[in-house]
Protein 1
Amino acid sequence: MTTKRKIIIDTDPGQDDAVAILLALASPELDVLGITVVAGNVPLPLTALNTRKIVELAGRPDIPIYAGCAEPMDRPLVTAEHVHGRTGLDGPTLPDPQIELQAEHAVDYLIDTLRETSGVTLCPLGPLTNIATALRRAPEIAENIREIVLMGGGYFEGGNITPAAEFNIYVDPTAADIVFQSGIPITVLPLDVTHQALVIPSRVEAFRALPNRAGPAVAELTDFFERYDKEKYGSEGAPLHDPTVIAYLLDPTLFESRHINVTVETQSDLTLGATVADWWRVSDRPRNATWVRNINADGFFKLLTERIATLP
Ligand code: BDR
Ligand code: CA
C-alpha cells in the first residue's frame, strides 16, 4: 500500500478555492492534515466561514480548520469582491455550517505541525501571508516541508489584478518574496497554466449532471465565478485557477514545466507583485522554482469531474 501524501491547504475561498478543497477531500491519495485560512478574495471572517461551508459540503467535519492572518505582512488588504461577489462564495446557497473553527491561530498550527511532522506538502491557494509569517517566526520548519505547490503569479499571461501582477502575489508581495527565497522546493501554477483551464459550457454541465450534492454546487460556483472573467477575456469559459494545484499533486503528467529562477517585485509601484520568471534562463540567478507552463485541460477536467462525483 502506498502512503498518502500529507498536505496542508492554505486558502482564501473564493469559488475556485472551494473547488480545490473539494478535489483534495475527494482524493484518497491525499491526507489533508488541516486547512489554514487567510484573508484575500474577501476579509478573513468570510474566508473562514466559506471554508467551513465547503468542508461541510464535502461531508468531512473531521478536517480541522484554522483562521490565520487578517492582513498582509506590511500593507493594507486588497480584496476581490468584483470577481467573487460580496460573500466571496456567491453562487450556491449553502447552509450555515455546524463545524467550528479550531481555537489555535493558523500560524501557530503551521509551526507546531511542521516542527513535529516531516514530509508535509503545503498547498497555498491565496496570498502567502500565513506561510511567510510561519517561516519568519520559525525558520527551522522549512526542513519538514517537502514542497510548496502554489497557485500564483503569471509571466506569459501578465497579471490579472494589475497589468503586471497576479492577485495572490500582489496582495502580499513581501510574503511571496520570503517564500520564493526560502530554499524550499516550490512548484508554481501561474496564470500561464490556469488560463488554459477554462470552464466551458460542456464542462460545467458535466458537473451539474452529477447525481450528488457536490456536483451541482460546483456548477453553481463556477457559473458565478465565470461571469467576470468571460466578459473580461471575451472567452467561452473562465479560468479555474486553484484546483490545478491539487491536480498537479494527483497527476503531474497532465502538466509541463521547467525549473527556473522566479523573483518577486516588491518595490516598484508600477509592477508591484510581478513574478519575474526566467523561463529562457537568461540570468544567472539560482533556480528556485518549478514553473508550470502548460496543462492538458481535458485530462484535468476529467479528473476533477470523476473525483467530485465521489463526494456526497
Ligand atoms: C487567484 O486569485 C483569486 O481570485 C483566486 O482564488 C485565485 O487563487 C487567481 O489570480
Ligand atoms: Ca484563491
Protein 2
Amino acid sequence: MNKLSLPSSSKLLNQDFVFGVATSSFQIEGAADSRLESIWDTFCATPGKISDGSNGLVACEHIKFWQEDVELIESLGVDAYRFSISWPRVVKKDGTLNEKGMQFYIDLVDELLKRNIKPFVTLYHWDLPQHLEEQGGWLNRETAFHFEHYVNLVSKALGDRVYAYATLNEPFCSAYLGYESGEHAPGKTGQGNGRKSAHHLLLAHGLGMRALRRNCPDTLAGIVLNFTPCYPETQADMEATKLADEYVNQWYMRPVMEGLYPDVIDLIDPQNRPDIFPGDMDLISQRLDFLGVNFYTRLKYRSDGKGWYEELQPKGVPITDMGWEIYPKALSELLISLHQRYTLPPIYITENGAAMQDEIKQDKVNDQDRIDYFQSHLNAVDYASEQGVDIAGYFAWSLMDNFEWAEGYEKRFGIVYVDYLTQSRTIKNSGLAYKQLITSR
Ligand code: FCB
C-alpha cells in the first residue's frame, strides 16, 4: 500500500497540527574534534559497551552536510524539525560560550525559519560534557546549576527564534540506563545512583525552565518524557505492575506535574533516596507550555513474589528490530490515562518510530513494516485525540538512520536511509508516505 492516511475528520489533519521529524546531536553530528568530549565518547571508547564497537566521532556528518540535511527536511514537507544542542559544542570548559559552536545552531535555526520549518530545540539529549562527569556528573547536584548556566547561554543566543524548547529528553534514560542499570553512558550502576541522578536531572529541568522563562518568555517551554506503559501478565500481577509504572514512568511525570514523587519512593531503601532540598519540588513542577511524549513500546510485568516486580521479555508477539513489541493500543491508552490522571498542557508526540531490517535496492527502501508501524500509531494518536486529549503534534523518530546508542549503527530508525560509507541519504518509502500524508492536508 505504501501509503499513510487518516480519516478526513481527523484533528491531525488540521493545518495547525504539527508534523515533524526528530534527531539528536550525538546521534547525527559527528565533527567530534570541534567540541569537548561528552560522556558518550568515553562510553563508546570503553570496550564492550556498544554492540558494534562504534562511536559518534563521524556519525552522519551532519555538521558537514547540514545544509543538504535541511533541504532534505524541507523536501519531506514537514512543519517542524526537532533536534538537540550539544552542550560540549557550545560551552567551553571555563563556562564561557563557544561562539563557533553556537553559530552552527544559529545558522541552522535561521535556515529552518527561512523555509518555514519550526525549530523544536532539545537542550539535553544525553551528551553531558565529560569534564562535568569527572566531577560526579548527574550524581552531583552542582551539575543542575551548570545546566542552568548552559540554558541561559543558549536561550540568550537563540532566543525566541526557536518555536519550542525542551529542557531534557527522557530523564528516565539518563538516570536509569546511565546511572542505575549501566547500559548507557556513563555506565554507573546501583539504585542510589539512579534515584539521585534522577532528582538532579529533574532539578536541572526546573532550573532550565527558569532560565527559559527569563530569556524567552514568549517561546514554548517544556520537557520530553518517555513512557513505556506497564501491563500485568495476569490479574494477580496488578500490584507489581503498578509499582513498575511508578518506578519507570511516574517517577518523572508526577514530580513535573504535581511536585511529588510517587508512593513507590517509600518502598526503596532510605539510603537510596535522593536528597530533596526545600524549594526543589516547586522548581521541578513549574507550569509547562507543553509535554513531549516519546513512545515506542509497552512492557509486561509480574510479581517477583517478594513485593517487587519482574519485567517480561515479549514472546510470540510482533516485534521491531530492537525486539520491542509493536502494540499501538498502548499509545492511545497511555494518552487517555495521562489525560484522566493529570491536568495536562498540550501534548506533542516528540518521538515515535521503529527500527526495521531495511534493505536498499536500486536506491529504494521498501520499508512497508515501518509504514505499518506509523499507520497504526497515528491511528492510536488520532483515537486519543478524538477522546479529548489535546495533542498538538507528532514527530517521527527519526529523520535519518543514526547512532542508536548502545546498539551503534546496526539499528536503523530513519525514514531516510544513510549509507555510512558515502554519507548519501535516500528517502525510504516510509519517508515518501509520511510526506504524502502531510502534504495532502
Ligand atoms: C529514544 C531516544 C532516541 C532514540 C530512540 C530510538 O529513547 O530518545 O534518541 O534513540 O529512543
